[in-house]
Design brief:
104 residues; mainly alpha; Arc Repressor Mutant, subunit A
């Protein structure tokens, strides 16, 4: 299980941290993508999320706000931010799996 209450990423790690939540046992795992491909894939996938999930991801991962700060910015409870982040990670996992070629 991965905690969504993680510490702030280091400079330039935002894409890696979120994409690392999308685990795969296939040889085409996110770790094999170069940095530019990872960033492009992640931003395209985040753009596919529903607005509420996308807003939470942008605030928490890309702007590095704490859940409380994101909740205040969105004018929603902290628990809603957490549930949206959980749903976003699940949806991104689904998008990742759909983007991978079927293994033979």
């Amino acid at each position: 299980m991965v905690s969504l209450d993680r510490s702030s990423p280091k400079e330039g790690e935002d894409v890696g941290k979120l994409l690392d939540l999308l685990t795969s046992k296939e040889p085409t795992a996110p770790a094999q993508l170069n940095t530019a491909e990872r960033a492009a894939w992640l931003h395209a996938a985040v753009d596919q999320l529903p607005q509420g999930l996308r807003d939470a991801v942008h605030l928490v991962y890309f702007q590095e706000l704490k859940y409380r700060e994101a909740a205040d910015a969105l004018d929603i409870p902290v628990g809603t931010v957490k549930s949206r982040m959980h749903a976003a990670v699940a949806k991104l996992q689904e998008i990742w799996q759909q983007s991978q070629p079927a293994s033979s």
